[in-house]
Amino acid sequence: MRVLVAEDEAKIAAFIKKALESHSIAVDMASNGEEALYLASVSDYDVILLDVMLPKMDGVEVCQKLRSKDVKSPVIMISARGATEDKIRGLDSGADDYLSKPFNFSELFARIRSVSRRKVTIMKPHIRVHDMVIDTNKCMVLRDGKNIELSPREYRLLEYMVRNQGKVLNRFEIMENVWGSGERNLSNVVDVHISHLRSKLNRGFEKELIRTVRGGGYILD
């Protein structure tokens, strides 16, 4: 899963980013409305967490512009303003949900799960690829019934490849969607993580699930 967090308060933004990444979610950050609008317009996010009181362009206007551009990513508005009229204004702008500050992270994750179910491309709770089963709710991977222990980053990498099964993914695509758009020059790191992931998935099994496409990238098929 890939989430955009648009929040101008650095401390809150850091807390949210850390919490999301601890659940194997790739996170992109925006500190103002214009940056949020740009990132959400050029990238596909599973969920957008959008603070209402953003500099340069407030969250309501950002959401209105995204919907006018036909960006369908679910939006959760986050605001210290919890009055009914504020919630109505946010939802009428095209947001899917509205969460008042301060909030509990368990509630935030519940709302993320709820709105992401509405997205057409959302993964099923259990995905099977050959003899491998991925439990997307528990972030668990089984192959032929055997539990495969993956790091959060390895799981995120595998989930992204499963969601794009049969497609050749180049290093840039993998960097953008697994590490986030804020990271650069990670092609070496991508290769290392792919190598570790393949080793764990293939150990003791005859069929390799991930293969290299010369000059193209990697594919899970």
Number of strands: 11
- Specify the number of helices: 8
Shape: elongated
Radius of gyration: 18 Å
Under CATH at level 1, the class of the largest domain stands as Alpha Beta
Estimated structural class: alpha/beta
Strand order of the largest sheet: 2-1-3-4-5
Beta content comes to 15-25%
What is the share of helical residues?
40-55%
Which fold name corresponds to the CATH topology of the largest domain? Answer: Rossmann fold
Global mean pLDDT: 86
Task: Present the secondary structure layout.
Elements: E1 2-6, H1 10-21, E2 26-30, H2 33-42, E3 47-51, H3 59-68, E4 75-79, H4 84-92, E5 97-100, H5 105-116, E6 126-129, E7 132-135, E8 140-143, E9 146-147, H6 152-163, H7 171-179, H8 187-202, E10 210-213, E11 217-220
Parallel strand pairs: 1-2, 1-3, 3-4, 4-5
Antiparallel strand pairs: 6-7, 7-8, 8-9, 10-11
